[in-house]
Amino acid sequence: MIVLGLTGSIGMGKSTTAAMFAERGVPVHDADAAVHRLYAGRAAPLIEAAFPGTVVDGVVDRKALSARVVDDPGAMRRLEAIVHPLVGEEERTFLNSARRSGAALAVLDIPLLFETGADKRCDKTLVVTASPEIQRERVLARPEMSEAKFASLMARQMPDADKRERADYVIDTGNGMEAARLAVTAIIMRHAAG
């Protein structure tokens, strides 16, 4: 089974592209979705112990937690030390299940794939990209997004050009949905054939 790491900077179309793989029957593990599940489950008591007052009714209050860690590198490292191993467990369970099902290809949708070194756990990598203008338009259209927040998020991410250079595959989502869908199909077909 080929493990394909899917990533892309904010607003580049990563989630939409992941959905295209899933629509074609390829197992997809979404690291962000895993974090959301963990914040409402196993991670909540651990986070509350480390950051008192950040859990409400058994669910992590993301705004409260963000306020505690966003400008504090030490706090961010403590949070990551809690969450990353749990996400890793979920990822291993997902990959074992995909292997048992006989999947030829499985996708790990990981926002900071290269930044965290997660690409080392993948056989191939795919970066989704778009022009800076399209990216900016998509991101600033999101609710509760500001120029400052966008700049802060971008500062934590590897430049798009560097990601594209490191990737085995690149899909430009600025070329439209149909072009992206065709590119996804080509990747699936390449690995289905072995």
From TrEMBL:
GO cellular component entries: cytoplasm
An annotated GO BP: coenzyme A biosynthetic process
Pfam families membership: CoaE
Subcellular location: Cytoplasm
Associated pathway: Cofactor biosynthesis; coenzyme A biosynthesis; CoA from (R)-pantothenate: step 5/5
Annotated GO MF terms: ATP binding; dephospho-CoA kinase activity
Record field: catalytic activity: 3'-dephospho-CoA + ATP = ADP + CoA + H(+)
Residues the record lists as binding ATP: 11-16
EC number: 2.7.1.24
Keywords on record: ATP-binding, Coenzyme A biosynthesis, Cytoplasm, Kinase, Nucleotide-binding, Transferase
Family in the record: Belongs to the CoaE family.
Role of this protein: Catalyzes the phosphorylation of the 3'-hydroxyl group of dephosphocoenzyme A to form coenzyme A.
Protein name per the record: Dephospho-CoA kinase
